[in-house]
Amino acid sequence: MPNTTIASGNAAFATILCLCLSGVSTAQQVLLNEFRADAGERWIELHNRGSGPADLSQWSLHYTTRSAGMARNHWWPFPAGTTLAAGAFLRVHWYQVAPSTAPVAGELWTGTSPYGFLFGLGGSTLRDDRGALGLLRSQQNEDMNDPTIVEDWVGWGEHSFSYEWMAVAAGRWQPGRATPSPAPTTSTARNAATIGTVTFADQQWFVDNTPTPLQPNIDGALVESYGTPCALPGHHLLGAPVLRAIQQPLLGSAQFGLAVDHTTGIYGEFVLVGFSAAAAPPGLPSILPPYAGQACQERIDTLQMPVLWLLSTQIIATPIPLSLAGLPPSAFGIELHVQALVLDLLPMAYPPYQGLSNALRLVIGQ
Fold it and tell me: What is the mean pLDDT of residues 165-180?
């Protein structure tokens, strides 16, 4: 366990979250989050998952299509002063005229006048069968062949649209890939919890039968158990220790936590909780000593386990409070792998440990 810190209290969990947050890319905080493109509604939703406001005043949306007899690329500039607050959503009604009533917060309309779009190319209606959208950090014509301005990209129905090569060069998309086309009354939405966990960017998107403009698409939270709990011969537990989540890991939840079942709480044993960034890769050697010809197997990657949390056990079940209150929006989608070891700290305690729990894969949602 190189570079591992043993801590007590909720400070351990705060430490591991800070370490995970330090690995979250700051290069892509504003996302294309959802779009709908049928006769009922045609809009594009953005989400700022960063911890600070994003100034979109010099940014643009790019829509590319293969409509016969029409220009196939359209750029629309965000108006001056457009700012997206941390954690906020913005919906752009594409190729639609703004209503005569007062503007709604978080809503923009591109209009249909060719003068409202860039480079004199005008706009065209979003199509649900095929197309691609780009979020670009520029409104300048001379930048429109520069991959470094591509903040985000999504293509649906088909692939290899104009300017897709820029998104590929920027690492925002992979060639030959496309999301499914949305059906009428549905949207194509993004599960931000999968960013960085799937092989291809299009796998982050799904057809949503219940569109949620200006709201999270899904909560993104995940609790998944893997591995089998075990206890060594001669243990004094009430059974093999089982690790479970008390609630779903949602941002802002002060009640979230874990628990280890089958602890006795009367023999002076402790629970050592390990937080890792990943499951154990095949062939990773155990760091636990075998006993009586038996051994329990760590299921989390002990080489990526910078923090261990030591707690005294309680009778029947030992709670592990892990408050998610006060975390920044960028904590959304963080993945943790957790496993618990029950042991005695007395000098002559034997067996060398009492048991090892199953592992949990946790993804923080909202």
Answer: 95
